[in-house]
Amino acid sequence: MDTKTPLLPQSESTMLRRPSSRKLRRFHIAAFIAVLGLFWLGWTWQCPDPSHNHGRAEESKVPLEIHIMSKCPDARDCLQNLVLPTMQKVSDKVDFRLSFIGKTTDEDDGVQCMHGQTECLGNILELCAAHVYPDPKIYLGFTMCMSRNFDDIPKKDLVEDCALEHGMDFDKINHCVSQDDGAYAMDLLRKSVERSAEANVTKSCTVRLNNKVRCIMDGGDWSECEGGSKPEDLERDIKSLYDASRGWAE
Where mainly located (predicted)? Predict the structure, then answer.
């Protein structure tokens, strides 16, 4: 600012400039600094650094990762019956990630998808949606919308309708898909597929909680769902892990 506000109220500044002994002047200045120091110390005690608290909150979130294929009916049912209902209750407690299943090769731009190249493009569209709109509450809705009509993936009308339904800009998603002649989006898919492979995930849909398999839907049936396959079961486990990470466990 161009105008500087004096540290002392005007009346006190005037008082300090009046003829007085040096000792008296020094006493007033020292007293003011002492009061200011005590005020600042009290403020820091009562108001910790919010960025420090935010960092701790982020660290305590529970990893929840869903591995899917965009044109897979099991992915649709898994999202609709387990993942979305759970996220509606505990999205603030999880570090959510959506990954895709495929196979890296030296052909087909480096990735093959079980349901063909249209599925690869569907995977890319959903990855780009997550990249452009990183809030899971937004991009998960878009992914669910696409999954409900997975036979139509990647038709433009479907993508535009799902983007509009969830307040997303289709042009931004399309830019991600076409950036660098498609190389950028293809790299997103390749890294996602490699991540699933490193986790030894081969079935869509696989739900991993805290970096461990929590549930698998394959062929319309749940398996490896220790603790249950209902949203309230997954919600309970997430809350338990979250509380434990923050030292709240009994």
Answer: secreted
